[in-house]
Design goal:
By secondary structure, the chain is of the alpha/beta class. It is about 35% helix and about 10% strand.
Length: about 525
Amino acid sequence: MDPSPSTAEIGFQSVSEARRLLERGSITSVQIVETLLRRIAEADHEGPELHAVLATCPDGIETAHRLDAERRQGKIRGPLHGVAALVKDNIDTAGGEGTTAGSLALAMTRPTKDAVVVHRLRAAGVIVIAKSNLSEWANFRATHSSSGWSATGGQCHNPHALDRSPGGSSSGSGAGVAAGFAPIAVGTETDGSILCPAALNGVVGIKPTVGLTSRTGVVPVSSSQDTVGSMARSVADAAALLGVLAGGGAGADPLDPVTVTRPTDLPNDYTAFCDSEGLSGVRVGVPRQHYFGYSAKADALVEAALQVARDAGAVIVDPAEVATAEAISQSNDEMTVMLHEYKAGVETYLATRPRVPGQPRTVSDVVAFNQDHAADELALFGQDILIAACEAGGLDSPAYIEARARNWRRARRDGIDAALKSANADVLAFPTMGPAWYIDHVNGDSHTRAGYQAAAVAGYPAISLPVGKAGGLPVALCLVGTAWSEPLLIRAAFALEQALALSSDMRPAWRSRVE
């Protein structure tokens, strides 16, 4: 049962519904923000204690008042004017809520300015009402971690069953949207950090091509794979948010060199591709080897969704194998690249934070901080990945350069691109992963496999879309394309979403456990 029925009506409004009410004057942004903050108070730190929100933003209501005033004056910043959002807490916000990446080591200072993507949100009239909890350091700390746990936010739970994992590392963004804390949320992904929590919480997640969105002001993991993306309860809402984050054709960020190389003719509005007939003629490749067979429940629901896609006009090409999938999974090259890039990127990021006694400036400082605060930071799991990052070489290391080249060759030319070309397919489709696993603070995460690694290593776009529930737990289908194919992926995902018509069925049941 919804723990907050008095706030459910506003909590589960879509962006278009909220915009329509705001335009009519039936509701104000202040009323929306006040209601959502009440819902967070009732369900996040009290009641079910979801722990999806790490901190609410103290200026949310003030911002809503200002945007309501602009609306009365006829000044509308865009389609998200006055809409509330959650932002993952590894993305800098300069307000009093701070940015911690879930670590107590970053809790003692606050960023001096907003991340570029947050600046774009505010410029578009989006109200950042809270920072969402996450897997600490974006789950790049220990091999036996518990997704959704951070020292600053505690253990985030899955609203569909509180004993189940919300996934990670954008745990609170996925769980918070599913719980009706905001219609949209910003997440980050290196390898599954948007797609995994979107799948487990039954929401839509869009992982864009690396370079579509700026990473300036984002606590990094890997410059080769990091990307900022959108999460929402519908494809249209996720697409609307993506357009703001990307900034259109003029959205390159000179401080993030990868964005400078992106195409200049990118769309300003990704909702333009939300066409209910969008599957007609789209060739959907189905990779079987490595992508199916690890969850019978997920396989069955995805097979049914593929039949719905076929009925909606898609051409299903089955199989359409990614020949390098197993090699990508078995290779240590991805970890080699991430360890090298993590050390360089995090230390560059830490230099942007104010200098105060005890504030870490290097990854080694973070390791020492955790050891000094072991009762709070290391009680549940260790930091072997951070220790390994301390020992990694620089970005001029031959081991790093060669591993990155092999990664991109396997995942791009010989992987996703080869599969699409061989099958003459437009997109690939497969289960994102199986249903949510039990939260386990003794052994850590227990999921077996997921389908999104090749897209992560390639830096290619992907969308996770809910396709049903197994035992009350969400199951999702993943759509993957080549670089800059977000318009096509959104078109296909939206049309499939409309054909499935599952939106109301994906609301969480707020069970304490799965029977």
